[in-house]
Amino acid sequence: MRAALRKGWCPSVLRPMASGDGLIVRVNLNNGRLSPVLARALARCAHRFGNGLFDLSARANLQLRGIGDATLSPLQSELCDLGLSETEEAPSTARNISASPLAGIDPQAILDIGPCVELLRDRLTRETILHALPAKFGFIVDDGGALSLASEKTDVSFLARRRGGVPHFLISLAGRAAGECAIDDLADAGLRIALAFLELRDAPTERMAGLVRRIGVAAIAGEAGLAPTTETPVHDRPPTAIGAYRVGGHHVLGLGVPFGRLDAAMLERLADIAEASSGELRLTPWRAILVVAVTPPDAASLADIALIFSEDDPLRAVAACPGAPDCANATTSTHEDARRLAPFARRLRARGIFVHVSGCAKGCAHPRKAPVTFIGRDGCYDLVLDGTTADKPIAAGLSGAQLNLALQQLVAKIDA
Description:
The chain is an alpha+beta fold.
């Protein structure tokens, strides 16, 4: 069953994916930045061509939902005109670069990674052999600043470090230290790693994590000619992005998006707030949107819409996929169940994800371990402790009411 569920792809503009509520079209934004004008244009697209809903993905992309067969082509044309579509010359893999959300303005950053990101994107576009990379193959470029991406894992990560006052990048492959490179060598190192991956992979669908498990990091680093390193990545919890704070000369308002779901009206309101404060929107991989502005954004004017204004909010303790009926694979209403579980989950962990509610065995919302994972199956849930949806459950066939009871019992044990 799990193998069958994995038969899918990473949706893009030209390769949408069918789901329970229609087609999904993913828009990959360069560096996760969204001007007020572009935000409004996307909101209009959601209204005209879809069901008005978006999902904010774990790669800081926006997915338009509910696209119909008749509206797909005009949507694709609109997104192409907006410069948001991949092309045959620049496939979606050339856009799979996640950069630090505060890049370019963060005084805590080791360097401004903007030029490095653009060089890497250009190289991924121009080297046609790299178009054979899997659609989900991704890169992270982290500046070492306040909102670090070091806690995130992807195929290839470049993490800014400093040694003796000189900045460099620590390179990790699927979260494992593999080498290092000078700042100016990032694009070349990325090319060599990608070529080594293509040479060594066992199947077109294999990702870096699978290759690392199969042959080890050293073999890949050797093939790519990486300089050795004695440093190791630090996989702490994601940083606190939500709230109002200053970053250098900028004002930042971080807003959580419950379970990554927002609608077109919410996006329009965020565009208005950003424009009024001479700012822009920046998306994060933590299902949060930042308003980065010259003057303080008016948070009070957003109080009437369903956003999260504090990391302490119970909803930030639960990760949940779209669930049924939005997802064709899901058999449970994950958002509804997650909202009921959130208060108990927050009592068990002050910050970060404690409970993962997945509508099926794919575990899209939270592929890493969670203290408690509920996996939808045939309208009920299986329970995994300290694991992922791939691990063996300790209980099966739990109803929504029994999920609450299971968490209440955990709370009672901790409080005792």
